[in-house]
Amino acid sequence: QVQLVESGGGLVEPGGSLRLSCTASRHSGITAMSWARRILGEERELIATTTSDGSTNYAGSVKGRFTISRDNAGNTVYLQMNDLKPEDTGVYYCDARAREGKGGGSINEYWGLGTRVTVSS
């Protein structure tokens, strides 16, 4: 199994920045790590993904403002959030997809418990 722990959430004014961190209990077998968020009244939205080859993908709502990066040696993924807006307020979750089982034939998905981001004056 993979345990994920997020940190870095908090209160920030509009236009400000936050850096979220997610640390995984292991690196081996992880094929992708992502950040998702749940805004009140909305479905959970996948906002940023990075794969083992270093490629990244972003939701249109955050593209150009958020940057995902991965520290493979430290089993940590980051989400740098700039130019934050009130509509960014919500709970942010870290996600990992990992190959497990005999021969690595299964792909399982794990989620952290989330960290809350509040953007308000």
How would you characterize this protein structure?
There is one protein chain. The protein is mainly β. Helix content is about 0%, strand content about 55%. It has strands spanning about 5, 10, 20-25, 30-40, 45-50, 55-60, 65-70, 75-80, 90-100, 105-110, 115-120. The chain is elongated, with a radius of gyration of 14 Å. The chain starts with a strand and ends with a strand. The relative contact order is 0.32. The mean pLDDT is about 95.
Structural class: mainly beta
- Mean pLDDT comes to 93
3D shape: elongated
* Low-confidence segments: none
Order of secondary-structure elements: EEEEEEEEEEE
What proportion of the residues is helical, as a percent range? under 10%
For the secondary structure, the number of strands is 11
How much of the polypeptide forms β-strand, as a percent range? over 45%
Cα(first) to Cα(last) distance is 40 Å
Number of helices: 0
Topology:
Layout: E1 4-7, E2 10-12, E3 18-24, E4 30-38, E5 45-51, E6 56-58, E7 66-71, E8 76-81, E9 90-100, E10 106-111, E11 115-119
Parallel strand pairs: 2-11
Antiparallel strand pairs: 1-3, 3-8, 4-5, 4-9, 5-6, 7-8, 9-10, 9-11
Question: Can you tag this structure with a few keywords?
Answer:
single chain, 121 residues, seven-stranded mixed sheet, four-stranded antiparallel sheet, elongated
Quick overview of this protein structure:
It contains no helices and eleven strands. The protein is mainly beta.
